[in-house]
Here is the input.
Amino acid sequence: MNDRNTSIEKGHGMTFFSTITLLGGLGLFLYGISMMGGGLEKLAGGKTENILQKLTASTAKGALLGMIITAVIQSSSGTTVILIGLVNSGIMRFSQAVGVIMGANVGTTITGQIIRLSDISGGGFLLQLAKPSTLAPVAAIVGAILYMFFRRAEKRTVGQILLGFGILFSGMFAMEEAVLPLRSSELFLRLFTELQNPIFGVLAGMAVTAVIQSSSASVGILQALTVTGFVTWGSAIPIILGQNIGTCATAFIAAIGASRGARRVAFCHLYFNLIGSVVCLCLVYGVRSVFGAPFWNDAINMGGVANFHTAFNVVSTLFFIPFSRALVKLCEWTAPEKEEERHPELSPVILDPRLYGSPSVAIAQARAAVEQMAELARLLCRDALALLLKSDAEALRLAGQREEVIDKLDVAAANYLVNITRLEISEKESREVTSLLNFVGEFERIGDYAVNIMERAGEVFDKRILFSNSAKRELGIINSAVGEIFDLTFDAFTRADLDLAAEVEPLEETVDDVCKTLHDRHIQRLKDGDCSIEAGIVFLEALSNFERISDHCSNVAARLLSDASDKPDTHTLLRKLHEGREARYNELRAYYSQKYQVPISAQVRLQA
Here is the structure.
């Protein structure tokens, strides 16, 4: 009976229980990578997307940055998903993302280089301590202590990183132990012999990586299999190249339903890996056929897998950097712009729930949606008076479409932000989410008031209502004042500029004074019979809506200022400003009064 079991083990290599060990080790390995990468991203303070956005002036700089960021978060797929979110939201241009994608492929090889530490041999104390078999348990113990017994977020995050490191190698060791019986499997030997066929090898690497959605993890699995002695250079090279192609699956999943620019990021990731792999295969097999490769059938170890993976991606990146423009053109040709897309602001920012895995990126995406609401509201405010004074059916139709987008973003952004509050986010990120929820409501109301003014345009032209020259001049003055206050508010919000935010409230007070003056003047015109009842009603409604737009601009600016001072009570802030003790506020109040209130008074004197 024992002889029979032995023959079965020799024939089949792995038993049921060693298969369970292998799958369990794989689960620990994947979880360890995810846990360590998540901790490293938290430790970066949610600044990953800001760094990517700012430091991509050239392809070479972008490649270096992509390499560093990916080495930190331990995932080229993660970096690509972040890029898709930034391009989709309009924060980053597609051309900026190309270099980062190249560098990300180099950065992701760091995981394989860490794993190859298992090949360290030697007897010295420091060398033994550096071995993962010693270092991983120590890291896990320290990480568990930091994570379980400390309350400070920074220490818990460091604990999470160390725990992830320990779990990663625990999974790696379990996989190595589970595959050891494969040394005696003839089936496994034949399998890796077949994988020396480049097509089969590439397809196998692609399939495994696409399923587990991590080239780092699939390279780690291949490194674990090297302990069997059956993995040769000839079978490993096609598999590694296939793994680079398979990792693109994550980017395409993230780009589903995203903007055209975001889809171009996914195509760029694919073309970079696909072209690089094809060129590498042609060179390797061409050199082998001409000069031979005596090492081809030699067993490869963990270090060999890691080194080839790194070398391939470094060479591919250096090769592609001079041709980055051609790569951009290829992606643009694959996902071309449509001629009818003349109004990109009508395509709402995609708020993808898959970005919840990286809360800082999800918040940046939500902010992009709120900024789009602000831009649409500004366009509506800009066109409101023009449509009231001159009919334009096409402009009215476009205004209606813009209002629909604002309404969609209002609901989508609010729900998205509420869901973010349920994630594990820092206190700073929590405050930002709360502020964005407030800004959503403010910009939605501004859009509504602008539309209210436009809706009167149809009535004006249906009833052939005429405004007096005085009324037109007055509407022009208040429109200019409200246009300026919205521009200040928009720029203060999008740039986080507190100096501009401080200019909003004195102008808002001036708008209130101007509206009161114009209201009294128009009532007097009605009494004197200088204006029809219908024109008077439309004028006063427009005045009321302009004033309310100004009020909501004040709310946005006050929120920005109070957030910066860590005093969320905006009413107290406004009350202190209105007391007249702030020199800067008084200077601006006088300036705006001279700019908008005085011309109206001068006009009154001239008419008198």
The CA atoms of residues 67 and 107 lie 4 Å apart. Residues 356-607 form a domain with the Methane Monooxygenase Hydroxylase; Chain G, domain 1 fold (CATH 1.20.58.220). The two ends are 119 Å apart (CA to CA). The mean pLDDT is 78.
